[in-house]
Amino acid sequence: MVTILEDYIAKHAGSAQRYVEASKLFPGGVTHDTRYAQPFPLYMTHGEGPRKWDVDGNEYVDYVSGHGALLLGHSHPAIAAAVTKQIQRGTHLGASTDEEIRWANAIKALMPSIEKLRFHSSGTEATLMAMRLARAYTGKDKVIKLQDHFHGWHDYAMVGSDHAAPGIPEASFGTMVVVPAGDLGTVEDVIKRDPDIAAIILEPTGAHFGQLPFDAANYLKGLREITAQSGVVLIFDEVVTGFRASAGGTQVRYGVTPDLTTLAKIVAGGLPGGAVGGKADIIDMIAHRNDPDWDNNHRVYHPGTFNGNPLSAVAGATALEMIASQPINQRADAMAAKLKSGINDVLGRLEIPGHAHGIASMIHVILADCDCDRETCTMSHAKISETLASPAVTAMKRGLQNRGVDIMGRDCFLVSGTHTEKEIDQTLAAFQEAMTAVRADGLI
Ligand SMILES: Cc1ncc(COP(=O)(O)O)c(C=O)c1O
Question: Which class would CATH give 77-325?
């Protein structure tokens, strides 16, 4: 009997070979922490729609979806055409462009809370700027963050994550207050006790786009009430959920309006890009007023070589205009629902403790059972995290890769508007085989 690991090594010789060279070039052999994998990560060559291919010629149904950026699948023809045309007209004109205006209008059309915005090159930059804007606007220094919520890798975002933080000054952590996710009482208490709270930032469907979920409908509404009463800036980090939790993000799905929203990934149509948008008077902390005292002493400074760059602008605008005018979210959500119920059926059939949960096109698998409604898992976050760390989860991921399915992180299927019944059926067959192999390896 071949183990999952032996099968992985046998099927991916080209990836193994590349990893030897990459390990001499990059720390850990990779260019993004979540791509680190043992004995080696997979090297991909190209993608099309819901599929991608590796250097050994293996084909995958892709649920990494460009770390969440590809709601329209790989190399969507309309986006490829827009970017190709723009690349011939100039990749950086060192000036303002029509393209950035079109891009901003496409964002505003989907997310009505955004009155004004600024572009960045990544989600990390967007959350850094959102926190800075909130501090400048309120004249206060501290930001509340929820335990385990991910907002990129800048110094302030790293507090309260499950990573140690060498290289980050203690002083920057001193400006952050970490609270348990989903607990309104603690947020209320912190704001009452500490007069220096500028803002609260969170992933509005729970940490890691719902891997550690909470009752979002009530929690977000409660946060809105508490922050409105206390003048604390409410920041939704919709870097992943933006345009995926619904076409207007989590805020439109649940009808809760934040003061600021951070965006990246889907916003730039599969190219690098980010944005922070929201209430005009907060975003206008960046505005010049032609008043030397304001401009030199009070204004929030914001350069950035690739802010609003024309390639990301045309890709982003094309994607968002399609999301606004076509049933892309509906298609992705319907395929995700089919996948979720199919995974639950397979686990039931194989009598493996586990379940799939999630909303919209974000489906998480937990190898432990519970009686949740399969939308919002009610297991404790500690228990979910403990379960995710098990070798069975690593084997599940590898077992799926061995059978032509690539998932996001350890547990997540991010479905695009290009996945069809064919991909879902293929995925469910692979899932059944992979879980059977995990059992044969003695891990469940
Ligand atoms: C919720 C959230 N915020 C911020 C970021 C950081 O975005 P980027 O990787 O573009 O810096 C991410 C990245 O995955 C994210 O998931």
Answer: alpha beta
Distance 150 CA to ligand 1 centre (A): 7
Tokens for 375?
């939308």
Numbers of helices and strands, H then E, in the chain: 17, 14
Between helix 421-440 and helix 4-11 the angle, nearest 10°, is 130
pLDDT cut 90: percent of the chain above it: 97
Q: What is the DSSP letter of 80?
A: H
Using CA of residue 186, residue 188, residue 190, residue 192, what is the dihedral sign? negative
Kindly give the distance from the C-alpha atom of residue 238 to the centroid of ligand 1, in angstroms, as a whole number: 9
Q: Where are the domains of the chain?
A: 4-74+327-440, 77-325
Q: Measured from the CB, is residue 150 less than 6 Å from ligand 1? A: yes
The residue with tokens 């469940």 is 444
Q: Is the pLDDT of residue 269 over 80?
A: yes
What percent of the chain lies above the pLDDT cut of 70?
A: 100
Nearest-atom number in ligand 1 for the CA of 238 is: 1
Token representation of residue 230: 């206390």
pLDDT digits (tens, 9 = 90+) for 142-173: 999 999 999 999 999 988 877 778 899 988 88
Parallel/antiparallel/unpaired status of strands 197-202 and 176-179? unpaired
Assess contact for 375 and 355: CB atoms under 8 A.
Answer: no
| pLDDT tens string 174-193 | 999 999 999 999 999 999 99
pTM over 0.85: yes
Ligand 1 lined by 237 (C-beta under 6 Å)? yes
Q: Starting at the edge strand that comes first in sequence, how are the strands of the sheet with 362-366 ordered?
A: 355-359, 362-366, 412-414
DSSP string for 91-151:
S--SS--HHHHHHHHHHHHH-TT-SEEEEESSHHHHHHHHHHHHHHHHT--EEEEETT---
CATH fold of 4-74+327-440: Aspartate Aminotransferase, domain 1 (3.90.1150)
By alpha-carbon position, which residue is closest to atom 8 of ligand 1? Answer: 123
For ligand 1, is residue 323 a contact (CB within 6 Å)?
no
Among the atoms of ligand 1, which is closest to the Cα of residue 272? 10
Query: What residue type is assigned to position 392 of the chain?
Result: A
Would the CATH topology of 4-74+327-440 be identical to that of 77-325? no
Q: Which residues contact 248 (CB under 8 A, 6 or more apart)?
A: 110, 111, 112
Q: What does DSSP say about strands 274-278 and 116-120: parallel, antiparallel, or unpaired?
A: antiparallel
